[in-house]
Known about the structure:
Mean pLDDT: 96
Number of domains: 2
CATH superfamily of the largest domain: Fumarylacetoacetase-like, C-terminal domain
Strand content: 25-35%
Shape: globular
CATH class of the largest domain: Alpha Beta
Order of helices and strands: EEEHEEHEEEEEEHEHEEHEEE
Distance between the termini: 33 Å
CATH architecture of the largest domain: Alpha-Beta Complex
Number of strands: 17
CATH topology of the largest domain: Fumarylacetoacetate hydrolase, domain 2
Radius of gyration: 18 Å
Low-confidence stretches: none
Helix content: 10-25%
Amino acid sequence: xKLLSIMTQSGPRWGVLEQDRVRLAPQSSGPLQTRLGxxxxxxxxxxxxxxxxxxxxxxxxAPIQAPPQFIGVGLNYRDHAIEAGAPIPISPITFGFLQTxxxxxxxxxxxxxxxxxxxxxxxxxxxxxxxxTDISVExxxxxxxxxxxxxxxxxxxxxxxxxxxxxxxxxxxxxxMGPWIVTQDELGDASNLKIxxxxxxxxxxxxxxxxxIFGVREIVSxxxxxxxxxxxxxxxxxxxxxxxxxxxxxxxxxxxxxxxIAIEGLGTLVNPxx
Length: 274
């Protein structure tokens, strides 16, 4: 399934994309993140609903606007660790994002007025289905509902001046997410997906998820040893080689730019910069 959220006259609604049409869940079904622990029930809820608007007529929102947990994993691609001149981590480097940073497809990434070092990061997002603690590597995929594209926009001056990643990556509008969640059963194996990012049509990042140091199973398992992973939570798994800050000379986003991210099987996420 491709699960998405759209804006309607009555407010945000979620549903499933079927070819070029959206089948909306009843308003009484509650937020999408509260349903992701039971994909079979989602299918049952949607099966009796009529086909709704065409996708082209819809204003897409981030599929999940308020995940109970929003976790980032840093330096998690071999090629990115090399370009950053950093040692390969021996365990996942994790930190948190704020919900207020989340925007949807087509929404503008807003440049902070003081900033000249806003950077891009194409990332694969894991969406947690069934909640769990102390999840084994072997059982990890039973807790994954699906995947989503995330742009981990980062303000590098704040990141390096303050020596931490949470604030520099949580400015308002710094977490574009979408265009939808593709469920695990539809996408299949996520260990070798092509991931690419363009700025104004110029390719800046091109890699595959085979470069991940810690894969989906290991990330879910390791995180769950310290926290209970809650249904509807999102884990952004890190970015590959090609960020602007590591280029010679460095490159950063500016007002008027457009950033596009494509991940094999997940679609394309496009956001302007203002």
